[in-house]
User: What shape does this take?
Amino acid sequence: MFGRLLLLETVGVVVNEHNKLRINLKENSYDIIIEHGLLSNLGALISEKFGKPKIFIVTDNNISVHWLEQTIESFSAQGVSPKVLEVPVGESTKSFINLEKIIDQLLESKVDRNSLLIALGGGVIGDLTGFAGAVTLRGIKVIQVPTTLLSQVDSSVGGKTGINVRQGKNLVGSFYQPSLVAVDTQVLKTLPQRQLFAGYAEVVKYGLIKDCSFFEWLELNGKKVLEGDKLAQQFAIFTSCRIKAEIVEADEKEQNLRAILNFGHTFGHALEVEAGYDGNLLHGEAVSIGMVMAIELSKNLGHLSGQDAGRAIEYIRSIGLPTNINSIEGSTSWNPDGLIQHMQHDKKVSNGQLRFVLIKGIGEAYLTADVEKKQVYNVIEKSLSGDL
Assistant: This one.
């Protein structure tokens, strides 16, 4: 299953030339395959695993101009002709309207329970397609083919699907595991730099919540990931997926442990809602700012040393990620009370009480509801003023 071993510098980390991870969830188990140039072999890979059912590809124009033709050709070589369903670009695509359009096209095309629904795109495409697969005919197989760094390390893995509503992000959806996640690192070469950096925020998250040695590796090798080094990217994706897989296997439906994957997201989602999903704030950028706020809150509560807090925030800043709310266009009119109101819609709220994912040290996350509103207010106010 594995190719020859290659060594990346610094902490003696070994990465395989071809990586494969298994998510062990009993009858919902599946593989994550990470390979440079995988799209050209996608048709053969899927035919080997699933035969030759009806294939539906959901994508958007940003992806189709770069990678759709190659993907279709890989199926044509297997004698399969996929039907392409194209949706608009952007976070606002995750809506009831577009969900209905996809389902309507699937049903008009006589989708059946043996059909495969392929999500070819970033997190928006993956979340929307996954939800459509979960509810169409009460469930058809979904293959995640993530094309952004963020979706490769986070949203394509773990089975969270959903859409946004006016009350908040991802408040309507389901847990629905894919049948396969196929990651091609080659697609990152056409990813805009801003999108690459936004995805890298989620990579940093894994080191902060669960693996200090991975954070140390990122401190030394992170620039290689962002500069397009194939092996560095492959290792960062593989390790991020491995950490997420371990957490998901222990808590598939987010009863407890899985909540730590939302580090930075309680603040971050509130920022996204306030920004109105208008494109001025990417999800990863919101998470980056949210992680800095969560780190500051952890320190203020006395649970995280000033040294670790400073180290983590300085790394996030030094790599080029945003750290303050005031870096967001249009945020001058925002206020702590409005953001806290958005946070009340967070999925981790229990009995009206906000719960936060915080850290006790680099690589050690925990979930707590023991946070006073004034403490949250102070952190937001500090970020609004640009002091983080």
